[in-house]
Design brief:
Four copies of one chain form a homotetramer.
Chain A (H helix, E strand, L loop, with lengths): L1 E2 L10 H9 L16 H9 L4 E5 L2 H10 L6 E6 L3 H4 L4 H6 L3 E5 L8 H9 L9 E8 L10 H14 L2 E6 L2 H8 L14 E4 L10 E5 L5 H10 L8 H11 L3 H20 L11 E5 L2 H8 L3 E2 L1 E4 L2 E5 L6 H12 L2
Parallel strand pairs in A: 1-10, 3-4, 3-5, 5-6, 6-7
Antiparallel strand pairs in A: 2-8, 7-8, 9-12, 11-12
Chain lengths: 334, 334, 334, 334
């Protein structure tokens, strides 16, 4: 059975397993070890500037800690109605910042536009009775597999700055977005006004380490306190730091994303007009009747039913390209 | 340099590394995998009854999630003044349950007695102006390396039941307590009235997996929601579950604790009357002048200064017994 | 200048002022006084059953305390997108229950229907990743001056019970709804499945006392704790209790609402097809161009601009009916 | 029966009742009315400088809002073990600021000294594992009826500044302290380094209005948001503002406190060596055996049993001096 359920289902890549074994020795606890000490420099190279980089174990933690640095309990976070922070994190952002509200925006493909965001802000009276926007959060690649270009991100950054909002990027699939857009990590983030990035590694071949990147480095000290307070400061942080370093080293993170995106493109071509959204990363949303889906599954593939008449396929860094080719044939034959 | 700083500094044991490698394959995300599915049964064997067992990555998360199941925002958790939840978790319990108070108790060696706990409760007026106790939390082995016997635990359990309090056991070094007391895991927990156990593995040779055990299994469903909401539901939970299973298998957890405790006993004998507390687990608090401490360090050992004229030594599962012997000589020679 | 801004702008009615003066004597503090002691019985008569009645000073406090009894931090409260708890309480419900989410529903006139509410629930996956609905909150009369009949309320009550949701009624203008629908207080609340009612008095001629009514009386003890914890247990509660008793006595509350509703009806007839919503209580939303609004204002009346081309008029218990008649003429003449 | 239970039990003074009646007219809602608009100036005169003054209805709300402006969820508030915020506010400070800790200090008469406070701070490691102090809160007059002089307050202010802590003064009985010490309101507050004052009126003859005074006026805007979010922005704020203005006008607040303090002094002289604490305000703690207390009560007086062999007497602004004289005789005769 070939599974296209989720990139969370995939194994960790060899570089990660090796790095963990290599880090398996006595060192200082928490983030006092030699691997953790190298994170700022390693991510600084990726982003062509000084950054503060913290390991955490989940994207939910990264998002919630990052957003809590920018939004008080009395504020609101602007995000898309289909954002992961709204739909799939059980209210974690509100737990971390003391009850802040998510102010939901519409837009095709889970993408936010400056005009829609501005419209939402304009409807808020600037008084104590209404919750005032404090931050903007977008996801790149989005929950529907679309990407924001550097220019689109910068336009949102301009909006955020004009409104005095913090700007957070949920990059659970940031690697896929970098590969897909061809833009530099810097252009997709701080040069476009992003203050905080949740930089995903787990869906891209990591085991259990994500990175929380502060371009506004003044926020990092408080973030470290909240990481501890939320129970996310692991005793043996070296095993997380080592994973991140291993995936940055030699650009494993880009190679992995390239593989996943390529597999998705093979399937996208086969799906053609069945696609609900353009395929710009490693997720496909494909129109299929229940009978069609059953026919494909009967050939040894599995995936989620997403909505009536629609399935979701996610490709991973280690997708068997032969299986992908066969699935493409199966889809094309519908 | 031989380091006796902390059992958090030690490496993960071979069984853990092997288990992680063996689990490195595609499976369902979150806790839907085959390893996570086996946790309840595996811990059920250890405790001789049905339990609900959840993996988390830190003791702070285990403690905070467990306590939040027993104490509302308006309640208080009774604990020792030197408890880890009071001193070393940055207020995590209050973050998780919405602001509950820790009501601090005194007692030698960080141990709580029913009489002291009852005295604290008796001072609270049962009205809306005062925070009412809702839970009792103890640590076994304690922060000063002492243990509670099964009988002592049961006496506290009786107190908790009489007062209608939930009973939580912080078992960051539960393995060391089991080995030291010779009592069964069941006798040290649910048979003594414990509702929730934070069962530590990381200090005992694990990498980044702890277990949160519910004997009151009705609490587990809400705990799973809070685990997610707090960002502690890892995408690839299989790597945590596999660690726990590997350490339970063949009683690695007991062997590791036995090693650490044995090393501590060697040092305890050497320290003799210098000991501040009896040594019942793997921690030693030893009176040394700064000059004496310097003399020991000069022979290649390192450890924390704990208080003026007092140092702390912690032994680990993988302590080099030759080094321990040499350190014992060094201490004995002071 | 005759002002139709808000029923919050009106004075307190004579019965309230007299009651406060009469209560101005030494008595027990907090809610231990003789007036507070009579609240349950007095409201029990209104609702034809046993209730627990707590005074608070604001509708925001009543709503937030009431909702916190029904929705955990990890849950969601279903309400209309235009509900006061969403738009005008600065996130108070989330502060009181530890960060719960408001799940927003659409519907004309700020009214919620069972079908829309059920649709929202049906879109939620019953897993730990998504916030699960825990309570339904409606406002009667609504923020746009419409009312729910007893039958409409009961249909929502049936939905709530079927989904296992608590049912809260924001009755900031409950008196206006009772007068308008002709239904009994019981039929508009507990007989229709309502568990908790925020029973407004301030907009209806009170000074600073609102009532929080628990039909599910088991919730009241915890509510009293939260009232204290949120700083809403006044030291001299007698002055609040006395207000409530005075307005219940002789049905002042109904008389006051009848006056306000009658004034609104006079204006509604004059406004005719300019009305944006049916006028069923004491609020009118009237289409007027800026020039028209200026013309009316020039005749000595004032009111809020609500939206482009739309103004809001609110009538109070003490509205000068001559002024109302003149305003009706002014509107009719547009 | 003459009651000496609590100054909360007393009636409101005539100036307050008259002011409420005079304010009973249509005006803008919330704090947009003419009375609220005069608060800053009126309190500015009292304190000889610019201040931001907010009305609230309880001391608990004043304390909690004020402290939340100075202490983040991750911080600690230093206060005396017997402080009202620790013992009698049901954890409100933690609810308001998201779970901050109260760090308890010892000291006779519920008074805090710089040395004790500094000792508590010095025991905190400046790392992410421990909660860092963020604010100091003292009560003047204290919960045991002692006062801080201007010099004592200034010494604590120096400590707070040196440690970078906010400085909050719980002035539930601030008027009694001003009268007792003879110091100016300015000298007891901002000139001594106080940032925020909870200025009590209710125990001193008010009905239900307290003042929250910001000397650090930059904090007031956020405080107004939290006042709303916590449900403490009353719809008809004019009735609170009018009370405060009435008690400032002609120094009613000082006259009332003078009366209460004078009554306490009469009793203090009678109690002599039976006093547990010096009597510097309007509270007395008097050693009496149960038989003695019964004998006094038999003569028509009532009061709280405070501890075994100890009773508490509180005098009010409107204490009948004949009754006080008789009680003094009764105590003297024991």
């Amino acid at each position: 059975m070939n599974r296209f359920f989720s990139d969370n289902a995939a194994a960790a890549c060899p570089a990660v397993i090796e790095a963990i074994a290599a880090a398996n020795r006595l060192d200082s606890a928490y983030d006092g070890d030699q691997w953790s000490a190298r994170l700022n420099a390693a991510f600084g190279q990726v982003f062509e500037r000084e950054v503060e980089a913290l390991w955490v174990t989940t994207g939910t933690a990264a998002n919630s800690i990052g957003l809590a640095m920018m939004c008080p309990p009395t504020g609101a976070i602007l995000c898309h109605r289909d954002a992961h922070i709204e739909n799939d994190e059980a209210g974690a952002p509100a737990m971390y910042n003391g009850g802040a509200k998510l102010m939901l925006l519409d837009g095709p493909g889970a993408k936010v536009s400056p005009a829609v965001a501005e419209g939402a802000c304009a409807r808020i009276r600037p008084d104590v009775h209404q919750i005032q926007p404090a931050a903007l959060s977008i996801t790149n690649a989005t929950e529907y597999g679309l990407t924001y270009s550097a220019e689109e991100t910068a336009a949102l950054g301009d909006f955020a700055k004009a409104r005095g909002l913090g700007f957070h990027l949920d990059g659970a699939r940031f690697a896929n977005a970098v590969v897909s857009t061809g833009a530099s990590p810097a252009d997709l983030t701080w040069r476009a006004g992003v203050d905080v990035l949740s930089f995903g590694f787990v869906k891209n071949g990591g085991m259990n380490a994500e990175a929380l990147i502060f371009f506004d480095t003044a926020l990092a000290d408080k973030a470290k306190v909240l990481r501890k307070r939320s129970g996310h400061l692991l005793s043996k942080g070296r095993y997380l730091a080592a994973q991140l370093l291993a995936m940055l080293d030699g650009n494993v993170w880009l190679d992995n994303a390239r593989s996943a995106n390529a597999a998705a493109q093979v399937l996208a071509e086969a799906a053609g007009t069945r696609l609900v959204h353009p395929v710009e990363a490693n997720e496909l949303f494909v129109r299929m009747t229940p009978a069609e889906a059953a026919a494909v599954r009967a050939q040894g593939f599995d995936f989620y039913d997403w909505a009536p008449g629609e399935v979701r396929l996610v490709t991973s860094w280690d997708q068997d390209m032969d299986a992908v080719a066969k699935l493409a044939v199966a889809i094309g034959a519908l």
